[in-house]
Design goal:
Layout (H helix, E strand, L loop, with lengths): L5 E4 H6 L4 H8 L6 E5 L4 H17 L3 H5 L11 E4 L3 E2 L3 E2 L3 E7 L23 H4 L13 H30 L7 H8 L4 E7 L17 E4 L5 E5 L2 E4 L33 E5 L5 E4 L6 E5 L1 H6 L9 E4 L15 E10 L6 E3 L4 E2 H12 L3
Parallel strand pairs: 1-2
Antiparallel strand pairs: 2-13, 3-6, 4-5, 6-7, 7-15, 8-14, 9-13, 9-15, 10-15, 11-12, 11-14, 16-17
Helix pairs in contact: 2-6, 3-6, 6-7
Length: 368
């Protein structure tokens, strides 16, 4: 098994010319379960830089402003969330802040959340059926537009990756429904995006360095295919994410923040636990998008596509040297979780819908 992620070009995905052996190396039984797509549309780089800069601006807003974009009724799965998630034996996670948004706008621009069904309503499943809450343009100008534009581009690419996955699955998995994953990505109103801000670690609050998954405990995504940008590392002591204030200040967008050339800690970043149990660090180039498989797809394919166990390791306090010595280094990224519609069956043997499956995951991961 290769210890590096498979890379393909966007044009090869569009042309359907990705070799079967390449798809097998990316998603087969001996794979890492992740694929990197290069030669993305030129606007991706600009959108990524702006939105990941906005993640630092957002995470550094005053508490009273962040409280306005929290949604406790939705278990914080729309809007802002920090310290509301439990990881690793019930530990409360305060290492990162998240901004969640429904991506139903990809299917229908008038939608702000998934479509209601007879079984699932805002009353019994607000986590997926609560409308989006956005920072106002007077707080973070252009946040909503930038977020939606980047998510659309990632989902457009995910459609092509899904088509390639279908090609592999149709040959390898008995009774696999032709074109299923592409259908999910293109038509689902439950797709969610999560903008993450991993707060800088300070020495006096650092956790035990023997814990590998110190910023985001080992977990599985519960959707089908997760789109990931590369992480953006920012020295927030040098690039201060403070929003200029003043009656005359009304820009279309806030200034982008300077990005470090690479992580100041080579051990920091995304790690995948491979099918063979090996832990592999995966580095995504900043002009590329990565896609990895989740639990719903594993269920749908009866285990042929395995969900990818992964975790994030933070920048260790005290290892930042050179011109960033003493800096407060944050890590920002975006994940887009493509998922089946709530009523779609993901476990045919037990007759479990995605909505039922997702309810169980949400209940397990949030603070009571």
């Amino acid at each position: 098994m290769s210890s590096t992620a498979v890379t393909v070009s966007l044009d090869d995905l569009k042309n359907g010319s990705v070799a079967f052996s390449t798809l097998e190396a990316a998603f087969g039984p001996n794979s890492l379960g992740i694929i990197i797509v290069k030669n993305i549309a030129p606007e991706f780089v600009q959108l990524r830089h702006r939105l990941l800069s906005y993640s630092s601006y957002l995470g550094n807003l005053p508490e009273f402003r962040l409280a306005k974009i929290e949604n406790p009724a939705a278990k914080y799965l729309t809007g802002w969330s920090r310290g509301k998630e439990t990881l690793r034996n019930g530990q409360v996670d305060t290492n990162k802040g998240s901004f969640y948004a429904n991506c139903a706008f990809y299917v229908d621009p008038s939608l702000s959340c998934a479509k209601h069904t007879a079984e699932f309503s805002p009353e019994n499943f607000p986590e997926y059926l609560s409308p989006n809450i956005w920072p106002s343009d007077t707080t973070i100008p252009g946040f909503k537009d930038t977020f939606e534009d980047l998510c659309r581009l990632i989902i457009d690419t995910a459609v092509l990756v899904a088509r390639a996955c279908d090609r592999y699955a149709e040959k390898e998995i008995p009774e696999y429904k032709s074109g299923y994953l592409e259908h999910v990505v293109k038509t689902s109103t439950t797709t969610k995006a999560r903008l993450l801000h991993y707060f800088p670690a300070e020495v006096e609050t650092a956790q035990d360095e023997n814990t590998d998954d110190d910023w985001c405990a080992t977990h599985l995504d519960h959707g089908c295919l997760t789109g990931l940008t590369s992480a953006m590392f920012i020295n927030e002591r040098r690039q201060i994410p403070a929003i200029p204030m003043g009656y005359a200040y009304s820009p279309k967008y806030l200034p982008v923040l300077g990005e470090l050339d690479s992580s100041p800690d080579p051990t920091a970043g995304l790690y995948i636990q491979s099918r063979s149990g090996e832990t592999v660090q995966v580095k995504i180039p900043r002009d590329c998008i990565a896609f990895q498989t989740g639990e719903a797809l594993e269920k749908i394919t009866k285990g042929k596509f395995k969900a990818v166990p992964h975790f994030v390791r933070g920048v260790r306090p005290g290892v930042v040297g050179g011109e960033n010595q003493g800096g407060l280094v944050a890590r920002n990224t975006l994940a887009v979780f493509t998922q089946p519609n709530l009523g779609e069956i993901v476990d045919s043997e037990q007759g479990i819908s995605f909505g039922e499956f997702a309810m169980g995951i949400v209940e397990k991961n949030t603070i009571k």
